[in-house]
Design a protein that fits this description.
Blueprint lengths: L1 E2 L2 E9 L3 H11 L3 E3 L3 H6 L11 H27 L12 E2 L1 H7 L2 H38 L15 E9 L3 H9 L5 E7 L3 E9 L3 H10 L3 E2 L8 H28 L4 H20 L4 E2 L3 E9 L3 H11 L6 E5 L3 H6 L5 E2 L8 H7 L10 H15 L3 H17 L4 H24 L1 E2 L2 E2 L1 H4 L15 H29 L3 H26 L4 H25 L3 H12 L2 H10 L2 H21 L3 H4 L2 H33 L22 E2 L4
Parallel strand pairs: 4-15
Antiparallel strand pairs: 1-12, 2-10, 2-11, 3-10, 5-7, 5-8, 6-7, 9-10, 13-14
Helix pairs in contact: 1-10, 3-5, 3-8, 3-9, 4-9, 5-8, 13-15, 13-22, 13-24, 14-15, 17-18, 17-21, 17-22, 18-19, 19-20, 22-24
Keywords: Ion transport, Membrane, Transmembrane, Transmembrane helix, Transport
GO biological process, one term: vacuolar acidification
Protein name: V-type ATP synthase subunit I
């Protein structure tokens, strides 16, 4: 498995078939639309034959308006559904695009939206009126002790009633000045913590004196607007507020009844989003008065499905369809990358994507990387219990919950990774930090195969051996790629010579330190020296300037220090595996020291919390450090990346999953 082979697609059809063709392409989710090339336009009559794309822009604005109303309606329903005790999450399901659009009834959806928005508008009006009346009610509460109607004093010849309030800091001085005016009657109506409310009955010939006083003490006049006494106006306003509260509850309940439309609105949102995506993509096509032309990229494996679907929808073969091989220039510049791997390998593609997709003409590192990542992940998170718990959790979620595709792929990745966790847990004999073989026996077998307490050096050596194997694999892949490109000398200096140098050093060290065998020493030395010479000599042969070639070769040979650092980096496999197991054992020991009553009460809760934390940290560490080993130590030996991701015309799948076949 590797990078999926792409074909250049060209479709020509009548304008009336445009929407159906785009719907088919979107449902297939396997065609990336690109701008029609000038070469094709010239062949079909020149650029002047085709019209600027304006219809799509108008359609997009129309659909975006509909989408905004649907989203607003859903927010309103979600907000008030709890009042009817109906609030629940929409269960994700699977549709084909054709089935989804078949269920979409624009007239019904428009009716739902108008009803909900009109109810919300009514609710807003009630809220504004309530707020206004609440202000009036609070104000009238301060004047309800006024027992005269201010309007009765408006037409009097000699007297005038002045109402108002002032800050209590000015109260004493104000009252003192008013008392000096013998023919002014002042009555306190209400006292708040900060203000006093007063009614002044004054003679009109002394009004100017009173005006001067109230101006000096910041007396705020109040002009009473009602035709009835304040007490009656207060009660009437209070009653209106009660009526509005009842109306508001009734409207909210009516909105709550709209919850039954929620699923239809969610599906309508998906359809409208799909239509917007289609219209946006149409800017890449060319349209004349009679026909349209579109071009794009399609995986070779999808050609047959597209042809069959177009023939089924257009049996008269009046849609022109052309598949072409990409040119060498297109391969280098514009052909997108789509990975295609076995279903077991496919979840690991996300690790490659996080680093960088391969170029279209480059090897896909995912299948090569997968067995190493599995091994390393299991080694760093090794525990039978942790792996079993992870396997059960991911399996149950994938079995009973329809997840978004990206999340489902992530869940599948950890479902697969749970297996090496359990496998290495058997090797280390660890079950939630407990040395399991002490309790279940070994059946005469030498178990555990490795102990994290007594076999630390062996685990360390094994970690470095795994690293050595991965580095050698990376160099081998690099050599094969260079040979395919007919760069034979580069394959020697950049790949095979390094393999020989590393193997030679290993053989030499084994002969001197472990085997005490002179033959191993001689063979290892010869292979290492020959390989080192190759690393230095090949750049000299390739370079026009022999001095520069020598410098390049010597600098390349200095890279041996980088390989030493790479091998040391793999010791993290041992460190993380042992630390996770040790932490789990320490948690068990802490609970084990508790008294019996505490051990079987709070101790159980404590174990769940602590092991949950250790599982999270172990999985996170294994995920991050496992990826780091692939990206730095492995990919650096043969992989460049830099490919452009294949971006087919599809739907957003916000609430549902769209599949070609349900």
């Amino acid at each position: 498995m590797a990078v999926d082979k792409m074909k250049k697609l060209t479709i020509v059809a009548d304008n009336e078939k445009e929407e159906t063709v785009f719907q088919i392409l979107q449902g297939l989710q396997a065609v990336e639309i690109q701008k029609v090339s000038e070469e094709v336009l010239t062949r079909l009559g020149g650029e002047e034959t085709f019209q600027p794309e304006t219809v799509s822009k108008l359609n997009v604005k129309n659909y975006e308006s509909i989408l905004g109303k649907i989203q607003e309606s859903l927010l309103i329903i979600e907000r008030y559904a709890a009042l009817s005790h109906q609030k629940s999450q929409l269960r994700r399901s699977v549709y084909t695009l054709a089935d989804l659009e078949e269920q979409y009834d624009p007239v019904a959806v428009e009716g739902y939206v108008e009803t909900i928005l009109s109810l919300k508008e009514k609710l807003d009006m009630i809220g504004e009126e309530r707020e206004r009346l609440s202000v009036e009610e609070n104000l009238l509460a301060r004047w309800k002790n006024l027992t005269v109607l201010p309007k009765d004093y408006e037409d009097m010849t000699y007297t005038e009633l002045i109402l108002g309030s002032l800050n209590l800091t000015n109260q004493a001085d104000f009252l003192s000045e008013i008392e000096k005016l013998e023919r002014v009657h002042c009555e306190e109506i209400y006292l708040s913590p900060h203000h006093g409310y007063y009614a002044l009955l004054v003679l009109k010939n002394e009004k100017n004196l009173v005006q001067q006083i109230i101006s000096n003490y910041s007396f705020q006049r109040y002009f009473y607007p009602y035709e009835v006494l304040p007490e009656q106006a207060y009660q009437e306003t209070k009653e209106k507020v009660k009526q509005l509260i009842a109306e508001e509850k009734a409207v909210k309940k009516e909105i709550g009844h709209c919850y039954e439309w929620k699923k239809s609105l969610y599906l309508a949102e998906e359809v409208v989003r799909a239509k917007i995506q289609r219209e946006v993509t149409k800017k890449g096509l060319a349209r004349s008065q009679d026909f349209f032309v579109l071009q794009g990229w399609i995986p070779e494996s999808e050609e047959e499905d597209l042809s069959k679907e177009l023939n089924r929808r257009f049996p008269d073969n009046d849609v022109y369809l052309l598949f072409e091989e990409p040119t060498a220039q297109e391969i280098q510049q514009v052909v997108p990358t789509k990975l295609k791997n076995h279903p077991v390998v496919e979840p690991f593609e996300m690790l490659t994507e996080m680093y960088s997709l391969p170029r279209y003409d480059e090897i896909d590192p995912t299948p090569i990387m997968m067995p190493f990542y599995l091994t390393f992940f299991g080694m760093m998170a090794a525990d039978i219990g942790y792996g079993l718990l992870l396997f059960l959790a991911t399996t149950l979620v994938r079995k009973f919950v329809v997840l978004p595709k990206g999340r489902n792929r992530f869940m599948k990745l950890f479902q697969i990774l749970s297996l090496p966790i359990m496998a290495w847990g058997f090797i280390y004999g660890s079950f939630f930090g407990v040395e399991i073989y002490q309790y279940i026996g070994t059946g005469g077998l030498p178990l555990p195969l490795l102990s994290t307490t007594t076999d630390v050096n062996q685990i360390l050596i094994l970690s470095v051996v795994f690293g050595f194997i991965q580095i050698m694999t990376g160099l081998l892949v690099n050599g094969i790629q260079l040979i395919k490109r007919k760069q034979y000398l580069s394959s020697v200096s950049e790949s095979f010579a390094w393999q020989g140098l590393l193997v030679g050093i290993i053989v030499l060290a084994s002969g001197m330190l472990f085997l005490d065998n002179q033959g191993f020493v001689i063979i290892g030395s010869a292979v290492a020296i020959l390989s080192a010479l190759s690393i230095v000599v090949v750049p000299i042969i390739q370079s026009k300037s022999k001095l520069k070639g020598l410098a390049k070769g010597m600098y390349g040979l200095y890279g041996i220090t980088g390989y030493i650092g790479d091998l040391v980096s793999y010791t993290r496999l041992m460190a993380l595996g042992i630390s996770g197991g040790s932490i789990a054992a320490a948690f068990n020991m802490i609970v084990g020291f508790m008294p019996p009553v505490a051990k079987f009460s709070i101790g159980i809760v404590l174990l769940i919390v602590l092991h949950g934390l250790n599982i999270f940290l172990s999985l996170l560490s294994a995920y991050v450090h496992g990826a780091r080993l692939q990206y730095v130590e492995f990919f650096g030996k043969f992989y460049t990346g830099g490919g452009r991701a294949f971006n087919p015309l599809k739907t957003e799948e916000k609430y549902i999953n769209i599949e070609k076949k349900k």
